Amino acid sequence: MTEEEFDVFYAAAFPRLVGQLYALTGDHGEAQDVVQEAFVRAWDRRAALLAEGAPEAWIRTVAVRLAVSRWRRTRRWLELVRHNPPQDRTPGPGLEHTVLVEALRQLPEAQRMAVVLHHLCDMSVQEVADATGAAVGTVKARLSRGRAALAGLLSVQDREGSHV
Question: Max Cα separation, the chain?
Fold first, then answer.
C-alpha cells in the first residue's frame, strides 16, 4: 500500500472505525485516540496490510485491544486508589498563622496591605510605596500604625487564651 493509498484508506476508514470504537468505549475522545494509535501502528505495516487483504479489520482489532488495555489500566488504578487513598501531606495552618490572619483582618485595608507586603512579602518600603501608589512617608506611617494595632490585637488574643 503506497502512502497515497494509505491516505485514501485512512480518510475512508477513520470515521467508521471511530464510530465503532465509540460504541464500544462510550467516549468519543477515547475512540479517536485508540483508532489514531492503531493507524500509527498500521503505517509501519502498510505493505503487509494490503497483502493480508483486511487492513480495516486489523486496525479495528488493534484499536479494540488498545481500548481494552486502557480500560484495564484505568480500572486497576481506580482499585489501587480506593484501597490506598492518597494521604493528606499538606498540614493545615498552625494556630499562630490563624491568629495572625485574624488579627490582620481587623486592620484597615491600607495598613494591612503595607504590613503584609513589607513583612510577609519582604518588600522594601520603597517597593511597597511603588506597589500601592502611596508616598514613602505614608507607607512608613501605615507600617507603624499597623504594627502597633497588631501588637495590641495579638496581646489581647494571647490574654484571652490563644497561645501565640
Answer: 89
Torsion 13-20-45-70 (CA) sign: positive
The residue with cell 495572625 is 100
What does the alpha-carbon distance between residue 130 and residue 113 come to, in Å, rounded to a whole number?
A: 13
Cβ proximity of 35 and 17 under 8 Å: yes
pTM, 2 dp: 0.47
Dump pLDDT digits (tens) for 51-83.
Answer: 667 888 888 999 999 999 988 888 888 888 777
How many CB atoms lie under 10 A from the CB of residue 26? 9
- The count of other CB atoms within 10 Å of the CB of residue 18 is 18
pLDDT (tens digit, 9 = 90+) per residue, 115-160?
999 988 888 999 999 989 999 999 999 999 999 999 998 887 666 6
